Amino acid sequence: MTGVWAGSLAAQDSAPSTEVAQAEELLSRGMTEQATSILAAHLRSQPSDVRARLLLAEVFLKLGRTDSAEEQYQAALTRAPDNYIALAQLGSLYESEGKLDKAEPVLARAVKHSSGEPQLRVEWAAVLARLHRFHEASRALSGVLAPVSVEDRMTFFRLKAAVASGEGNASAAASDMESALAIGPRDARLEMATAAAEASAHNWKRAAGLASPLFAAANDPAAGLLLVEAQLEMNEDVRSTLASLHDCKLSSERAGEFHERLAKLLISHAHFADATEDLEQALELDPQNADLMFDLALAEFKAGQAKEALDTAQKCRSLRDGAEVEDLLGDIAESAGDNLSAVRSYQAAVTLAPEDENYRISLAVELLRHENFEPAKVVLTQAESLFPKSWRIVAALGMVQYFAGTKESSSRILLRASELAPQSQTVFEYLGEVEMDESSPPDGAAIARLCGFADAHPDAAREEFYCGALQLHRDYVARDTTHAAEIVRRLTLSAKALAREAGPHCELGRAEAWLERWQPALHESEVCAQLDPDSAKAHYRLAQLYHRMGQTDHWREQLELHRVAALRLADENEQRQKTRNTFIYKIRTQAPEGP
Predict the structure, then answer these.
(1) CB hemisphere CA count around 149 (13 angstroms)
(2) What pLDDT does residue 253 have?
(3) Could you write out the DSSP letters of every residue in 40-82?
(4) What is the pLDDT of residues 26-64, one digit of tens each?
């Protein structure tokens, strides 16, 4: 870089001093010592000769005397503070020494005093990017055209890609990497970097297309891992790639990290059984690693290997007990039907991590699962006092109240939870399911909140459904058809938006039957029963319609389907049981910070 900027200075000054000309001639012949002596003597008599100082600094750099070079640059800037060549050379020196905090402001001044010289802007942007100041780097590069030379052009596009990636613009980063790759298409490292950029942009087909030949040619584990990730994202069969990856020859130092990375990738795509093999190999290399032991236990549990998971989790506990381990042991015990051991493990998790709401929710859910409602209330009430802003705890308390039979109290608590939740729609789903219980009239405040949200959010199809369905439940009992048109409109909209869900069709069919519009009622009720064939209620209502319309064979068929469904689950408990199963699944998978 310094030679480039020295050339720029020469172009500005057509008449160098005799001594500088002499020194340049000597340097061209490799006579560095003599040139240094001439420049030093000249500067003693002519200290203001900036060109001589910059040439001497360049000589010092070639000799590895960076401190002396820096002194000359500083001396030159003392006499010519706006000299962008001196600033550029000093900034380049700092950058080469890794002194980025010193290089950046110097290069910024150089850009300013050069009136935005493109090459300087590129160098400044590179330093800004290394400092992770990506937005500033992007502004520095704005409007700069790609250089002409192949090497500089490739470097330019890679820099742009790094800046775009740092700004979170994965698509732009991938595009810039593709531009760099077009310049050097046979560069394996560049191909790999481009594949990684395409993967970050979720262009999985292109990422796989780049990684596959790289992996086939060199059996490079990094390329293989990237290929596996792309294939997993595209739901392709990864068995062949995994087999080839496992044949890679790795040192023991690299093997452990490789197997751990591959296992985590497989786990993230729910390939738990495949992940266990790599975790076992990683543990062979590091048998005292409690984190690996926990990951293996979790993968075994998720893969349905309950016995192996229990053995591994107990070994993990002997290595390093913790709330996470106890929580997993609770899950394993519950899956084995050992409710008492599950409760003990969940309680141990709470004791080990009293500041984490997740473990209190796990304990409460376990109690709820086995209808121990009062103990669950105690756990959640205590948790609410410790975590008053946790919407999950408040929502869980509301649901326990509902399952215990106090729906009115449940709705009030869930409305409060909806005010705490960053995104209230998750709580609205709980509230809607609670209010859909026909054992008591729907709560007016709940209807108002759900309908208000649906009106304010045109895409909120589920809230639209709950609003229309609850209005129907309220008015059906009161025999009030005042809001019938609104109810049908809301349920029609939700049935279209949630076409593969039974609920909107079931309620729309009921509304049409209420209004004695038998043909649309029959159509929606048939869709309802098709989408939810295990619902005794759906078959019973459809049977009533067939009977009214004189379709005797269909009527008898639906009555039989109703009888079979009712044997599986008592009709009056159907809604509550479904709601409980859904709640138990969802509440433990939702993050504390939001739904």
Answers:
(1) 4
(2) 82
(3) HHHHHH-TT-HHHHHHHHHHHHHTT-HHHHHHHHHHHHHH-TT
(4) 999 989 999 999 999 999 999 999 999 999 999 999 899
Return all residues near 435 (Cβ < 8 A) that are at least 6 apart. 411, 442, 443, 446, 447, 450, 466, 470, 473
Instruction: Determine contact, residues 60/69, Cβ cutoff 8 Å.
Output: yes
CB 273 within 8 A of CB 283: no
Half-sphere exposure of residue 482: CA atoms within 13 angstroms, side-chain side = 6
How much is the pTM? 0.74
SS3 (DSSP) at 167: coil
Examine the pLDDT at 7 and tell me if it is beyond 60. Answer: no
CA nearest neighbour of 365 among 589, 593, 594, 591: 589
pLDDT value at position 161? Answer: 98
Q: Give the closest residue to 403 by CA, choosing from 428, 453, 439, 427.
A: 439
Question: pLDDT-derived band of residue 572, with 50, 70 and 90 as boundaries?
Answer: very low
Return d(Cα 568, Cα 347) in angstroms, integer.
33
435, 491, 504, 519 from 510: Cα distances, Å: 17, 10, 10, 12
Instruction: Specify the range with the lowest mean pLDDT, choosing from 24-28, 258-262, 510-514.
Output: 24-28
CB atoms within 10 A of CB 324: 19
Residue pLDDT, tens place only, 451-471 = 999 999 999 999 999 999 999
So what's the pLDDT on residue 591? 55
Distance separating alpha carbons of residues 128 and 91, to the nearest angstrom: 12
pLDDT at 576: 65
- The full set of domains in the chain, from first to last, is 400-587 (1.25.40.10)
Query: DSSP string spanning 311-339?
Result: HHHHHHHHH---HHHHHHHHHHHHHTT-H
For residues 262 and 447, give the distance between their C-alpha atoms in angstroms, rounded to a whole number: 49
Task: Round to whole Å and give the CA distance between 290 and 312.
Answer: 10
Query: Which residues have CB under 8 Å from 85's CB, separation 6+?
Result: 5, 6, 8, 9, 12, 54
Cα angle 307-311-314, degrees, rounded to a multiple of 5: 135
**pLDDT tens per residue, range 377-388:** 999 999 999 999
Handedness of CA 48, 51, 56, 61 (dihedral sign): positive
- Decide: helix, strand or coil at residue 569: coil
Q: What CA–CA distance (Å, rounded) separates 42 from 19?
A: 7
